[in-house]
Amino acid sequence: MDDRVRRLVVVSAGVSDPSSTRMLADRTAGKALQALQRSGEVTAQVVELAPIALGIARALVSGHLDDSVQEAVDKIAAADGLIVSTPVYKAGVSGLFKAFVDILDDDLIIATPVILAATAGSERHAMVVDEQMRPLFAFLRALPVPTSLFAAPSDWASPAFGRRIERAAAELAHLVEAGIGAGIADSGWDGYQHRFAGNATRSQQSVDDVDFSNDLMRLANGGRSHPTP
Predict the structure, then answer these.
(1) Position 194 pLDDT exceeds 70
(2) So what's the pLDDT on residue 180?
(3) Using a CB cutoff of 8 Å and minimum separation of 24, what contacts does 162-165 make?
(4) Looking at the domain assignment, is residue 105 inside a domain?
(5) Distances (CA, A) of 39 to 32, 35, 59, 81
(6) Does some domain include residue 52?
(7) Using CA atoms, how far apart are residues 85 and 222, in angstroms rounded to an integer?
(8) What is the pLDDT of residues 119-148, one digit of tens each?
(9) Which pLDDT belongs to residue 205?
(10) Mean pLDDT score of the chain, rounded to an integer?
(11) Among 120, 122, 111, CA closest to 144
(12) What CATH code is carried by the domain that includes residue 69?
């Protein structure tokens, strides 16, 4: 058994009550928790975007995160694994979901394992997860699991869909247990571009934290990537 407490965070952009988007996220989280509990202690937290939608909109315009949005971002920054779930509107992820992702630091979830999930009223939207969400989280340098999840009304009672959820949850559990995300982020951190005083757990918060000798800083100051001997 592993003594570390792993942190699973669920992000739901559902706005209805009850929300099929939240239901999919909860069902997936339940399976992921079962898988992770076999090897140690795990906690789960939920970030609901609908109640903080106004704060997200303000942050998108002003760049300032109010307390409710900052709390949500802090939970995501500290997560060992993520499950993100959005409704699909007009052949795309919801505006609320995209707006929230847009206010996240680009380096907030580097190498964090994540399950991508979406719900819609028609099977015609089934490719939205892989065509829109997967590139989005690849840009954020996260680690989306191989199995994506999409639920139309006809999927909920399908045994095959249940098995797909279990497979995605198992993939997430293996990545989280292996700890490869933290290893990737730690080994490559100095080579990534970061936001100064950002929300990422390793973010430079003061001038004293900045390494002015690395390649990126030398290039930013008009120097060479490798100084001349």
Answers:
(1) no
(2) 79
(3) 165/27, 165/28, 165/31
(4) yes
(5) 12, 8, 38, 15
(6) yes
(7) 43
(8) 999 888 999 999 999 999 999 999 999 999
(9) 46
(10) 87
(11) 111
(12) 3.40.50.360
Residue pLDDT, tens place only, 69-100: 999 999 999 999 999 999 999 989 999 999 99
Write the secondary structure of 161-209 as one string of H (helix), E (strand) and C (coil).
HHHHHHHHHHHHHHHHHHCHHHHHHHHHHHHCCCCCCCCCCCCCCCHHH
Q: What are phi and psi of 6, to 5 degrees?
A: -90, 145
Main-chain phi, psi angles of 220, to 5 degrees = -65, -25
Q: Is the N-terminal amide bond of 229 cis, ω within 30° of 0?
A: no
Place of tokens 């680690």: 143
Structure tokens at 54: 């106004």
Instruction: Return the SS3 of 36.
Output: helix
Q: Is residue 229 part of a domain?
A: no
Q: What span, in angstroms and rounded, lies between the C-alpha atoms of 65 and 48?
A: 16
Residue at token pair 């609908």: 50
Q: For residue 54, what are the domain limits?
A: 2-189
Q: Does residue 228 surpass a pLDDT of 80?
A: no
How far is 13 from 7, CA to CA, in rounded Å?
Answer: 20
Is 128:98 a contact under the CB 8 Å cutoff? Answer: no
How many structural domains compose the chain? 1
DSSP 110-155: TT-EEEEEEE-SSGGGTTHIIIIIHHHHHHTT-EE-S--EEE-GGG
Taking the complete model, does pTM exceed 0.85, yes or no?
no
Nearest to 10 by CA among 88, 114, 101: 114
